[in-house]
């Protein structure tokens, strides 16, 4: 399965962006999906995940209340709505698919990754 992330760009502090992650090759309806990010000089970190059905989500403390992850299995796509963006949200954002149906914050539980999309938040 291939993942194509899109929707990144330059936005001012307080602005919003919506990232999309489109899967191709096979359906991802039985996979939990996640978003991770990596800022310059830092390790990749967990952002958000959603179970296979979309019925349950988890967020890192740094984005809770500002970001929303969702999925449309009919479109084989996962989304990340990012509101109230801050300069510290600047990073390359990656979507990933887990071998499991339940949500995970651990990057080693994700088997396939997209190429990343850059989000830059200016102050």
Strand portion, in percent?
over 45%
**Given the structure, what is the number of helices?**
0
User: Can you give the mean pLDDT?
Assistant: 97
Structural class: mainly beta
Low-confidence stretches: none
What summary fits the major beta sheet?
7 strands, mixed
Q: What coarse outline follows from CA principal-axis ratios?
A: globular
Spatial gap, N to C terminus: 37 Å
What share of the residues lie within helices? Answer: under 10%
Q: How large is the radius of gyration?
A: 13 Å
Number of strands: 11
Mind explaining what this structure looks like?
The chain has 123 residues and is an all-beta fold. It contains no helices and 11 strands. Strands 2, 4, 5, 6, 9, 10 and 11 form a 7-stranded mixed beta sheet that branches. Strand 4 and strand 5 (45-50) form a beta hairpin. The model has no long low-confidence stretch (mean pLDDT 97).
For the structure shown, list the relevant keywords.
single chain; 123 residues; mainly beta; four-stranded antiparallel sheet; 0% helix; 50% strand
Summarize the structure.
The protein has 123 residues and is mainly β. 0% of the residues lie in helices and 50% in strands.
What is this structure's SSE topology?
Elements: E1 2-6, E2 9-12, E3 17-24, E4 33-38, E5 45-50, E6 57-59, E7 67-72, E8 77-82, E9 91-98, E10 110-113, E11 117-122
